[in-house]
Amino acid sequence: MSTPTRLVASSTVPPPRPLAAGQPTPRRRTPRRNGRGAIVKNLVALAVAVVAVFPILYVISASLHPHGTLVGSNSLFSQVDLANYIRLFNSPTQPYGAWFVNSLYIGIVSSAGTVLLGALAAYAFSRMRFTGRRVGLVSILLVQMFPQLLGVVAIFLMLMTLGDVFPAIGLDTHAGLILIYLGGAMGVNTYLIYGFFNTVPASIDEAAKLDGASHARIFFTIILPLSAPILAVVALLSFIGTSSEFVIASVVLTDPPKQTLAVGLFQFVSQETSANWSVFAAGAVLAAVPVVALFFALQKYIVGGLTAGAVK
């Protein structure tokens, strides 16, 4: 009897196919070429870092220069003196400490209010179906096409009229300025949060409703914790915008002790004969500290996405 033959797979690698006539041989990337690419990338990154860091170093150097001009600060850190920082808090006509506290107060309250109102509006647009929903979303975007600068005169007249009836929200009040900021920031922030809420699975809401949870409980205990990244971004952008806003704050706040940093610092350089750019630079350096601190505090929420793995 003839035994059946068995096919044994060869462990050797088959030889490469011969190239056709006229076909160019493939080129392999050499380590030298890869090294050149890494060098170019590092050079580009270094150039970008220099462009980004140099203005910061220049402002810090100017703030430490004892003279009041920027021309003498061209050589970085040629002279180091803290007199400009001391002068910020020793001028009775220019209360920098009050400006700093006012900016923190207005920025924090405006950021918290913007996040809360924007999240409430975004939840309604994302989870509820009602007449005029699409028209409302489109209207939010259309209103944001017009900057707040166009409404400065209307804002001034409105606050002046409201001040006769409700002095707490009239001209030269922090509450009136905060209300203006809250109304102006609703559009873009609402649309940003609305887009993030749409990425949160609706099955979470349905499961909570089966357990008897109301819309308020779902919003505060489920949606908001899962949406921490976008809320952190909105809070950071709102704080930066309100802290550095100048036009509306200069119109609403006229009393120096009630002004913000953006309006108050302008007094150091507004007069041509008495402009002191070194003191202005020192104030700008201190004004950037809360923004940087807030960014590092919210960095983990900005980078991480908390909705990953929410549905099992």
From TrEMBL:
Primary localization class, coarse: membrane
Segments of skewed composition (Polar residues): 1-12
GO biological process, one term: maltodextrin transmembrane transport
Compartment list: Cell membrane
Single GO MF annotation: ABC-type maltose transporter activity
RNA-binding found in the keyword field: no
Domain ABC transmembrane type-1: 100-298
Listed CDD domains: TM_PBP2
Transmembrane annotation, as ranges: 38-60, 104-125, 137-162, 174-197, 218-240, 277-298
Region (Disordered): 1-34
Membrane topology: Multi-pass membrane protein
InterPro entries in the record: BP-dep_ABC_trans_perm (IPR050901), MetI-like (IPR000515), MetI-like_sf (IPR035906)
UniProt entry tagged with the keyword Transmembrane: yes
GO cellular component: plasma membrane
Keyword tags: Cell membrane, Membrane, Sugar transport, Transmembrane, Transmembrane helix, Transport
Family recorded in the similarity comment: Belongs to the binding-protein-dependent transport system permease family. MalFG subfamily.
Protein name, per record: Carbohydrate ABC transporter membrane protein 2, CUT1 family
Lineage: Bacteria, Bacillati, Actinomycetota, Actinomycetes, Micrococcales
